[in-house]
Write a structure and sequence with these properties.
With 330 residues, the chain is an alpha/beta fold. It is built from 16 helices and five strands.
């Protein structure tokens, strides 16, 4: 039951290519636009590096991230927010988290430079702000190693340098000159150097080091958590696209038929499933008539219970999609 946003975008994009109504491609383009992330954090915590990682993963970084209502941001808002911390949690970090939460924007705290930060300040921030926290070493997420860097790392395999501190690593006598060691330190940090040296010692191919470093960086955990937090924003986009198409349907039989199609109903259901599963609820993925009926009954009841408007709509869409699946199987 995963992949709702991708399914929704693909379904509408395909229909836009087939439909003669000029308004449909515009709706599809708005649905497919990158989600917006606002990244804030104190100087020196790696905010720029985290922003670069998120941008390369397809997110749109908005301007002036410290103010959720800043009019310089696209459309004046963000879909999700990231607050980057490192080494110590400061009052301004807590204020940023509180500001985003108060604005209704989901917020993720990224404990960057995880090898230096440790777990205690992250736990303190989680208790203080009630926001999800993921640790990472973003510097290692997208590393390019040229021949000189690989040569220096190979030399460190044969002749280890003092890893206790940056000064000890740079100032100690060593066959590798200080300048190449400084370059490695800027490129990888001590943790990245240690991972790379260990991997080469174990026989890893130098070409595999970027992938190994990315795995060690923890950024994929950050991206997964952000993806979960963004589920409501994606679902709202799907519903907004459907509302726009509903307006076009008055003058287009093609659009009206698409809105009533299995593709549209099931894509909306899948986006709704992402929302409720992001909160820890489970949606039965079984594909048999009895399961579809049970799911429809359960989520119809859920949508009429004490839930907020977002989850009420999600429950109704899951029920509707389940009934459509039941019709298919019959």
């Amino acid at each position: 039951m995963q992949g709702g946003p991708v399914i929704s975008v693909d379904v509408l994009t395909r229909f836009a290519q087939e439909c003669g109504d000029p308004g449909v491609p515009e709706v599809a383009a708005r649905l497919a636009a990158p989600l917006r992330v606002a990244v804030s954090g104190r100087a020196g915590v790696g905010r720029t590096t985290v922003t670069r990682v998120l941008t390369s993963a397809g997110w749109l970084a908005v301007d002036s991230p410290d103010n959720p209502d800043n009019p310089d941001s696209p459309d004046g808002a963000a879909d999700v927010a990231v607050v980057v911390v490192a080494e110590a949690v400061k009052p301004e970090d807590r204020s940023s988290v509180a500001r985003w939460r108060g604005s209704g924007v989901p917020v993720l705290v990224v404990g960057n430079k995880a090898d230096l930060t440790g777990a205690v300040p992250l736990e303190a921030l989680r208790r203080a702000a009630g926001a999800p926290v993921v640790s990472a070493a973003a510097l290692l997420a997208d590393v390019t190693l040229d021949d000189d860097a690989v040569g220096a790392l190979r030399a460190l395999v044969a002749h280890p340098a003092d890893p206790r501190s940056p000064d000890a690593f740079l100032d100690g006598a060593h066959p590798v000159a200080r300048e190449p060691r400084l370059r490695l330190l800027r490129l990888l940090g001590r943790t990245g150097i240690a991972h790379s040296v260990r991997a080469l010692s174990d026989g890893a191919d130098p070409g595999d080091l970027p992938a190994l470093l990315r795995e060690a960086s923890g950024v994929d955990r950050v991206l997964d958590r952000l993806d979960s937090l963004a589920a409501p924003a994606r679902y709202r986009r799907v519903r907004a696209a459907l509302a726009e198409l509903q307006a076009l349907a008055a003058g287009s039989r093609q659009v009206a038929e698409f809105l009533a199609s299995d593709d549209a109903v099931l894509a909306t259901m899948t986006a709704a499933v992402d929302v409720v599963e992001a909160t820890g609820l489970e949606v039965d993925p079984a594909d048999d008539p009895a399961a579809h009926l049970r799911r429809a009954v359960r989520w119809r009841t859920y949508s009429r219970g004490p839930v907020n408007p977002l989850h009420r709509a999600c429950g109704a869409d899951i029920c509707r999609g389940s009934l459509r699946l039941l019709e298919r199987r019959r």
